[in-house]
Amino acid sequence: MSNKNDDNSHLIQAYNRMMSHLRTAFEQAEKGTPPTLEILLGKAKSKLIELEEATLEEAEKVGNYLKRDMEDVANYLAGPEAKELSDWIKFDIQQIEKRALELFGSVADKTKLALFELEQQAAHAHDYHTGEITGIGTLHCSSCGQAMHFTTTGHIPPCPKCHHTVFTRDTDEG
Q: pLDDT for 46-83, tens place per residue?
């Protein structure tokens, strides 16, 4: 059995591969009626399992992380204060690996097609928890407000300041 760091690394790689499969599914979708995020995530999960890049349990877990992140960015881009994807991420784009930004941005742009559906489902911000995987962006500790910047997909550690384990993505800051 692998240790926890190996498991986290595997899930981070699975998140990035699922994001890539999701992008491909968006690109291959018919132009007339765009599929929902749920349908495309299902295809991406199936592809991950089919290629033996993740188990069913891992694909479900990573799919939930990816859906949470996609809903957050879609809600931000649909909101009245939305500017650019870089504003949602909340730090200098120069810090982000070019490939990761292109991949995340291409999926986020295509997600605009499903914004109305997501707006109806998103009554409140999503909580992020230690041990989960998240995409690029900034999370804030729900207890002390400490910001944690993710320049690549990563495992969410406890807050470095107060060691609490619940975070939010604050999209109201400028």
A: 888 998 888 999 999 998 998 888 777 777 666 666 56
Q: Residue 35: give the domain boundaries.
A: 4-124
**Residue 52 forms part of a structural domain:** yes
Residue 49 lies in a domain: yes
- Is residue 58 situated within a structural domain? yes
| pLDDT tens digits for range 76-133 | 666 666 565 555 555 544 555 555 666 666 666 555 545 545 554 553 457 899 999 9
Long-range contacts of 4-13 (CB under 8 A, 24+ apart): 8/133, 8/155, 10/54, 10/58, 11/58, 11/61, 11/62, 11/133, 11/155, 12/133, 12/153, 12/154, 12/155, 13/53
Q: Within a domain: residue 68?
A: yes
